[in-house]
């Protein structure tokens, strides 16, 4: 390659996967978005989203810290209040390899925050070493009643070794008033 020239296609490894990306195109899009300028005509939104999607969707938890999500460690969930202030709760959580899964119930501040401002951060701290932690920032992709009680039962078995959420963690009488919601969070950034 001649001096002063650059490779149009940058090949690099990210999270164990090789990606080939047109660096110039990515840079044009990034600068255009950051400065508020209009993107050039040759840059179309499908191209932008295809490149952007790769960088977001391949955000995975490193194997060195995966144990923090495989153990029944109570994690901290941070959401954003209407005034921009963070709100934190301790929650039970599952990681299915691509998404974080947790539950809440309708009408709580946590539920309203997740629905209105779908950014969330989960922090898992090693109980044996408080300086070893895993921070996962992400976007809420789904909040649904479908499968929420099954998820609550699965987490109850994992965290307190009881068969069901209602009847062991919460009384059966609360089943009708507590409308459980299953939340699925897609990681967008992982910090260790």
Counting DSSP E segments of at least 2 residues, the number of strands comes to 9
C-alpha-based Rg, rounded: 21 Å
**Order of SSEs:** EEHHHEEEEHEEHE
Could you name the ranges where pLDDT drops below 50 across 5 or more consecutive residues? 1-36, 39-58
User: Which strand-content bin applies to the residues?
Assistant: 25-35%
What is the helical fraction, as a range of percent?
A: 25-40%
What is the molecular shape? Answer: globular
What is the residue-averaged pLDDT? 80
Structure class: alpha+beta
Number of helices in the DSSP assignment: 5
**End-to-end separation:** 37 Å
Question: What's this, in brief?
Answer:
This protein has five helices and nine strands, in the order ββαααββββαββαβ.
Q: Which key phrases capture this entry?
A:
33% strand; globular; two-stranded antiparallel sheet; 7-stranded antiparallel sheet; alpha+beta; 192 residues
What do these coordinates show?
The chain has 192 residues and is an alpha+beta fold. Helix content is 27%, strand content 33%. The protein has five helices and nine strands. The protein has helices spanning 23-35, 45-57, 67-70, 109-116, 148-160; strands spanning 9-14, 17-22, 75-80, 86-91, 94-95, 100-105, 119-125, 133-144, 180-191. It has a seven-stranded antiparallel β-sheet with strand order 4-3-7-8-9-6-5, with helices on both faces. A hairpin with a 4-residue loop joins β5 and β6. The longest helix is centred in the first third of the chain and has 13 residues, at 23-35. The relative contact order is 0.14. Mean pLDDT is 80; it is low at 1-36 and 39-58.
């Amino acid at each position: 390659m001649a001096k002063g020239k650059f490779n149009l296609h940058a090949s690099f490894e990210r999270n164990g996967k090789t990606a080939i990306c047109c660096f110039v195109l990515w840079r044009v899009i990034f600068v255009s978005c950051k400065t508020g300028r209009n993107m050039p005509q040759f840059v179309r939104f499908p191209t932008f989203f295809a490149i952007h999607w790769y960088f977001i969707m391949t955000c995975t938890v490193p194997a060195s810290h995966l144990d923090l999500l495989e153990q029944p460690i109570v994690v901290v969930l941070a959401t954003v209040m209407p005034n921009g202030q963070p709100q934190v709760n301790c929650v039970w959580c599952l990681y299915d390899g691509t998404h974080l899964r947790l539950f809440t119930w309708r009408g709580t501040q946590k539920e309203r925050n997740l629905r209105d401002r779908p950014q969330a951060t989960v922090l898992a701290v090693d109980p044996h070493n408080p300086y070893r932690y895993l921070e996962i920032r992400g976007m809420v992709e789904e909040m649904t009643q479908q499968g929420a009680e099954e998820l609550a039962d699965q987490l109850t078995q994992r965290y307190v070794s009881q068969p069901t959420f209602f009847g062991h963690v919460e009384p059966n009488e609360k089943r009708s008033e507590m409308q459980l919601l299953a939340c699925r969070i897609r990681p967008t950034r992982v910090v260790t």
